[in-house]
Amino acid sequence: MMNYNKARVILNQEISDGIFKLVVEDKNEIKAGQFYMLKINGSTLLPRPISICEKGIETITFLYAVVGNGTREYAKLVEGDYINLIGPLGNGFNIEEDLGKVALVCGGIGTAPMLELAKKLREKDKNSKIDLYAGFRDNIYLIDEIKEYVNKAYVSTNTGKHGHKGFVTDLLKAEEYDTILCCGPEVMMKKVAEICKEKNVKVYVSMEKHMACGVGACLVCTCKTKDGNKRTCKDGPVFDGDYVEF
């Protein structure tokens, strides 16, 4: 079992209703799409897996939604506090292969890893086509930051408050891309995978599951694939979308 490291909190700020941006000290090298396990010292609650949103030289940024007792504890952190981390964990997105024209498709808090992913893709090829498709219930966040690295950004909200009223999959023209990289609610990723299969477009999905350890020991985070159950933390979280059985 890996040991937790103490990380100093630099910023913990609510950026949208119930959505917090947490910045901590961290010098590790990461891959876009990886995650960390976060735990507050002394807490009786299980650690939480949180995707890497952005990596600085000596900092790492996470976005998290306050949805339960654990994340409510995180919301109380202030500058100078410490939080325990294990990471980076998981495989991340493989951007070393030739992805061609890329669409980043995300929903809700699944938008978080798309910032570092868009940045890394743009660093790799300054002239490649990279578009963002992001869906939210009502309020949007992180779109302005991601826009810096993509050609176009398409936004939908369930309420119609921003962009298209409806689902982000309504906007997606998969046939215009060679590869789609996806993260968000499972029902959305299932729909994206179905669209991509129909259009014969490569798709990778980042699965989000409850985890207890993050290192493959507890088997809490299994997901179904064509080869049986796989551990989201150790074998993923990024899988070929055609390989996962939603």
Can you walk me through this structure?
Responsible for channeling the electrons from the oxidation of dihydroorotate from the FMN redox center in the PyrD type B subunit to the ultimate electron acceptor NAD(+). InterPro entries: Cyt_c3_hydrogenase_gsu, Dihydroorotate_DH_ele_sf, Dihydroorotate_DH_Fe-S-bd, Dihydroorotate_DHASE_ETsu, FAD-bd_FR_type, FNR_nucleotide-bd, OxRdtase_FAD/NAD-bd, PyrK_electron_transfer. Heterotetramer of 2 PyrK and 2 PyrD type B subunits. This is Dihydroorotate dehydrogenase B (NAD(+)), electron transfer subunit. It is a single chain. The protein is an alpha/beta fold. It folds into 2 domains: 5-89, Elongation Factor Tu (Ef-tu), domain 3; 102-240, 3-Layer(aba) Sandwich (Rossmann fold). 17% of the residues lie in helices and 36% in strands. It has 5 helices and 15 strands.
